Amino acid sequence: MDKVTVVGAGLAGVETAYYLARRNIPVRLVDCKPSRFTPAHSSPDFGELVCSNSLKSNDVYGNACGLLKEEMRLLGSLTMESADCHTVPAGGALAVEREGFSAYITQKIKSQPLIEIVEGEVTSLPEPQDGITVIATGPLTLDALAADIAKKFGSGLHFYDASAPIVSADSVDMTSAFIGDRYGKGSGDYINCPMNKEEYDAFVAALLSAEKVTLHSFEKGEIFESCMPVEIMASRGHDTLRFGTFKPVGLYDENGKRHYAVLQLRKENPQGTAYNLVGCQTNLKFGEQKRVFSLIPALRNAEFLRYGVMHRNTYLNAPDVLNKDFSCKHNPNLYFAGQITGVEGYVESAMSGLLVGVHIAQRLQGKSVNFSSATVSGALSEHISTPNVDFQPMNANYGVLAPVAYTGRDKKEKRRLYAERALEEIKKIQSNLVQTV
After folding, report:
1. Going edge to edge, which strands form the sheet with 93-96?
2. What is the pTM for the complete model shown?
3. Domain spanning 166-308: which CATH class is it, in words?
4. Which pLDDT tens digit goes with each residue over 266-297?
5. Domain ranges of the chain
6. What's the pLDDT tens digit per position in 103-130?
7. Which of 123, 229, 284, 412 is 20 to 30 A from residue 291's alpha carbon, by CA?
């Protein structure tokens, strides 16, 4: 059997390589370490955690990322195996001792006889005849390969990740909001969150004084107008937002009133369970985002499914490039995994690498597998492959999942139903997969 080439030994790459090798599929794992490091990396070990040591919530029945972790455990994730062996106290979160975590992963990879480790830099994408290749080089893909990806996929590669918060639709206070499109052009696609002068003044004051995330040195540089943080726009003048992102022109409520300022929310998914804060890409710390945006009356009780982020990132415009199984539309032998696909976060990145391993293993056995949006794994797979005019990286959240049949108001019960449904499907999938040898 020909070897599967995996480029990149971060969380996504090691997941793919480990899954395949344990199913008797030989792998060539290529990584630039230790002869070369990206600006964010310093350890020669694989699966290095470059920022926080937290993998976020470990609550299977109350948090979407916690549920995703359990899905991955059931599928045999190396990331979760190592994390569960190297935990440090972190309340309800799963935090790890990072050196031990990466050393464990490295030892597991190096002890696999079917994984050939090759030190070196890959500078271009393979051709279809070169066999199955997985690109898992992460958000800091080295320049030569990034340039080749950009060349071959045109505009489908981004170098700055600037996104706005996303809130749960059922947490928006509709007594302080109204549905409608600017100048009535549309079919009621937006939720409008109005503010009077006092509310707008308080919001701007809080926005300008809020604490921001400190960028790494390699992330600093020119800020493009297309991804300008809302707090920087506000700093250009007290009324800048009222004549831009929060402009009320053409928006009238059911009483025909035009308000002082209006924030629009746009559907993030076809089901309408999640809404994006239009034009509110931000670099504020997560706690500050919740505090500041909750000052808007309609968002006073908002549940944030994803917070806004802004940092240097390399990711594909995946819906134009990838299929749901993470293979390329123009080259079925080329797969992508990790944050370069448009998933956001350690766990989500590892998940994509694990799923790529699952899909390749099934393919080599003449089989296929489908992860539906009833699972977090499947929902994120659909996110990266579903057409979207404003595609942005996404982390695990309930808003991407297919709705459950529940009409009550108990969030704990609703989340429990999400988890039970997802885990039942993963167990069925796992029982039919190519098993470990």
Report:
1. 54-57, 93-96, 87-88
2. 0.74
3. mainly beta
4. 887 767 888 889 889 898 999 999 999 999 99
5. 4-161+312-431, 166-308
6. 999 999 999 999 999 999 999 999 888 9
7. 412
